[in-house]
Amino acid sequence: MKKICLIALTTLVLFSCKKEEKKALASSFATVETDTLLTDTLISIRGLAVDGDKVWYSGDGGKYGYVSLTGEKDFSGIIASDTIFPEFRSLAQTKTDVFVLSVATPALLYKISKESKIARKVYTEAGEKVFYDCMKFYDDKEGIAMGDPQAGCLSILTTTNGGETWQKRDCANLPPVADGEAAFAASNTNIIVKGSKTWIVSGGKKSRVFLSEDKGKTWTVADTPILQGGEMTGIFSADFYDENIGFAGGGNYEKPDLNKGNKMLTTDGGKTWELTGEGSGPGYISCVQFIPGSNGNELITVGRNGVFYSYDQGATWKKIHDATNLNVLQFADNHTVIAAGQKNVVRFKLK
Q1: Mean of pLDDT values over 167-192
Q2: 296-301: long-range contacts at Cβ-Cβ below 8 A with a sequence spacing of 24 or more?
Q3: What is the rounded average pLDDT for all residues in the chain?
Q4: Candidate CATH numbers 2.40.50.100, 2.130.10.10, 3.30.300.30, 1.25.40.180; the one for domain 42-346
């Protein structure tokens, strides 16, 4: 059953389903309405993709599907490979197909027809260090996926034929990684693409930003000031509003309340980064996204501290919902947020 939660921000009143609190917030929206689109007590979702009036999702247990934004019939499916029910943390789409990619070994990448719902395996890879984190498409033909290091570089897969076949890039053409540098499959937001530009964020003992201006053919790497040095520290999510303004968040997964050293901003396309919002707002960030049409000023995050909003590029923050079970968010439009995580998919309407 759907619930509606009203959060009155500009009038300083916040209603969170059962509890009323007072908050102050300068905002481009006055209220937030929340309803539940999917409830499944046996799923953890980390991949989302908005497809018109549908939102595709992927999760553990081999589960994938879509929820309708207009009240039409939803779809759910399960993929099994022999006795394996893959954990699909990566999800991407073209006009005609959806792609899901599993973590751990063997990596299993499936192409799913939006029309027939038939899933076909198009790539597999086995190995002790195989662990894929994220996947995106530039257009209906060219796509990229990334994973943890093997042989001294990040694992990079690319396709140029709409995902029918995938090729693994040779480490000779990729930047070397540092000792203990990897990535986190938190919300399918390790890769960001804008035109021909690609950004990939890493984490762990070293946390950096990899930039390619030619769809992954050549790369440069930028150091960052974000908290790093431990296995569970660094960048967990990033987003770019345009080719210049970007934001990255994360922190320390093992210290989810720590809100220093976990948020940073770039205004030069990811070449340099500065910490922002020190001691303000969310601690550990699982996913961050710019609000469309906000001129690169407004951000929303989800993580283990709740849902947070910033109207000034992350300098100051306000909590707009108490949900701590959400891993990933995507915008259906500049007034509609779809978020998912443990057990559910929810919609936030910004009004």
Answers
A1: 97
A2: 296/241, 296/242, 296/245, 298/28, 299/239, 299/247, 300/329, 300/337, 301/237, 301/249, 301/329
A3: 93
A4: 2.130.10.10
